[in-house]
Amino acid sequence: MFFPSKLVDFRIFFGYKCVVFQKIGEKIAVAGFYDKAKFTPKRFKWHTREYKIEEITIASDIKDGGVKKRMYSVLCSGNLYRICFNRDDEIWVLEEVWLPG
Amino acid sequence: MSSNFIHIDINSYFASLLQQENPFLRGKPVGVIKDVGRTCIIAASKEAKKYGVKTGSNVKEAKKLIPSIILIPAKFDLYLHCTKKLKQIFESITPDAEIFSLDEAFIPLDNCVYLYSDPYKLALNIQEKIKKELGEWVTCNIGIGENRLLAKTAGEIAPKGSILKIVDEINPADIPKEKGFLIMTKDELLKTAKFSDVCGIGFRLEERLKPFGVEHPYQINSLSDEVLEKYFGPFYSQALRRIGKGEESYILNRPENAHMKGVGRTITGYKLCSSEDAIKRVLYNLTEEVTYKVRKMDMAGRLIFVFLTGSNGGGEKSWHGHKTLKHYIRHTNEMFNILYHSLYKKWKRNFSVIRFGVGLSLLKPLKETPYPLLTEWYKNERLYKAMDKISDKFGLFTIRSGVLKEEEIIRPEVTGFLGDKKYQLDYN
Questions:
Q1: Is ipTM strictly over 0.85?
Q2: Which of A54, B135, B224, B290 is most buried, by the most CB atoms less than 10 A from its CB?
């Protein structure tokens, strides 16, 4: 095949040793506050456990056609979580988790 | 000499943003590659650069230099989002701020000299704003000079995270006491800067200057006008003369409000390809993206070009073709039919292809082009408008030609140079 149709997760592919990376893609519940028309997530609930967000390392907007998403990379107890808010259907999804190895 | 321009250059932009996003990567050598399986490093972190890994390095070479290098795929959505944030920061200082590439911008100070009388303080303020908006890990160099060339060159050679001002002469009273503030004379800059740090002089031009003993901009002044014209042609001789004097060259002095002149798209495959179907599919895919962007900007063009690069086992081969039409076009099928049947079919197929490029140039706003006479054109226009509406809502290629039905779609992406910045920043 000229262009690969299914991508292998490359960080594992190249033997990424210092952290453990996992794709999740599960719905979560998020609590936060609005201030000056800006939402800041503070906590999220994944399955039965609640996670307190200590730091948002970066937030970015993704646009695929008319579907706008906002991606937050957040630190909770030393682990990195990438959570995504679909502004179209207003659903939060936990995309990835990075844990120290 | 007055300080008329500030140039901001974010340090190791692609890698720094990934390190900002993921603290596990901070302080570690990171190489950014375009995608899974790619072998070219498109950006390196500050830590990797210390060991000699740079943009364009091969993954094999990089691993030899740093066996523990971490390779991460680029996140173009993140980069474009952050560039839009940077644009907001710069335009809050002056609406004349000019985004030069994904991670570079110029701020002309002429119109805001009363608001910001001290360029050093303004530069420091910009650095702080960038850190606040993009994160602590994102640092930038700032160059200050009387024109874009001096400001940009200063920004390129300044130590990471510092501010360098270029002046005609240094008065003891001008020497900044604060850490990270530096000052240099224009002559010193032109005598010491390498051509790789000077915008407008690429690798090939640098190699052509070497036999004349010219390795720094100032040395261009030792060459006579006749020599420059004879060996570098009428165009580059003038550009080089200006650079030698520390004056702005044509490349940096681009009219900001002008519309885009052309839209092109290139892609490098994972391996050599000789399948007729695969080549046709890639060319159609790229044509679709080009014409979508042209229509989105409400323009039309009349110069179609295509190029292919590859190998036949005996080294790199390339082929290109172009056709200038008498009428303007903007519909995918029309462009592809000309590109495929009138240009591509003339190629002798004497090598396998790895790199593809297509483009539509000589663009004009649609309202400035002559009205088409054929009813067929209006029918197609309505069809493409309807398709574009679907693409705007659900993403490009949601509705697509049968040519693209089976294989993975090549999706639009941004480049570091941000060649299509007008489209990316104003229309996307």
A1: no
A2: B290
